Amino acid sequence: MRKIEPVLLMAGILLVLSLASCGGGAKPKDSDSGADLHQTLNGVPCPNASDFRGTGIGNDENEALAQARSNMALEHFSQKFKSNVNISGQNIDNIASTSTKTSIDQEAALANAQDAKLHFSTRKGSKTGVVACMSRSDAAKSFAERMRPIADSLKFATNNVIEAKHPKLKSEAWQKAKPLYNKFIGLYSIIQSLDKEKATPYEPVNALYSKAETYYLDFCQTAKLYWNPEQDNAYSEIAFSKLSKNLKLEKASCKGNGLSLIYKNTGHKCDIAGISKCSHQPSLLIASCEGAEYRLLEYQNIETYHKKEETAKEMLQEKLKNESFWDKWELEIKQWSPKCE
User: Fold this and answer.
1) What digits encode the pLDDT tens for the residues 144-170?
2) Number of separate domains in the chain
3) Edge-to-edge strand ranges of the sheet holding 117-124
């Protein structure tokens, strides 16, 4: 039997050990394949440079695509729409009117991220990576859907502002239109920055609001409060003194879209039956300059008693000054005064 040379024996052992250590080849770790996928995906652009792009990695293509769509929405669409919103590259000051541009705070979440299309897919190891793309026109669709009911409500409110003759109704219509416009102009600006054609149908509504704003501001300029008592006497002067503390009242003939505050000529009444009983009933009419009567404010009969009539009258006037109804009247009158801010 031939002897095996020691050198050959050692070489054979080393060869066996080497093959055993290879054992079918080392599998790459998931983290390694993930890193490779990220590098691969980063090099894949969307068909159009203006498209919104998202990448995702998952156990399969569906999982990766869902992640890509979610990442795209988070990366390109902020939670609130501000004047420096990234998706438009456009300053909202160019669109919003002076009176509303500083208060715009519009949700800009993308509602149709699921419409992003699969553009590229690859698999490495146990993971799949994808690139999803969405055109700006497709992104605009969800905002246009959200816009329709707001635009309809704004159109209705602005028409009320223009057509209302009743001062309180006109003012109420304006207060309803303003917050609607803030929502409208935020969405309008987003849609216009994404796809101008999809913003075109809403241009008439934007123009209508501008018209209503002009009408209302013109209305405000002449909608003053005019003090027109039926008779100038001690009681009407007390009423003017109390109400003019916090209300801007003009002692002049009512004109334009103003309101005439008419303190009724109730004067005082004194009955003498061993003691003087004097009374006065406060009454104020809110009317238009053309004479349309809107609201009559009344308070219960105020009475004082004294053996001397002159003293009873003085007490009556002093009591009138200190009654609590003046604050309620003031609040009521303020509701009729247009809010022009």
Assistant:
1) 999 999 999 999 999 999 999 888 899
2) 3
3) 52-58, 127-134, 117-124
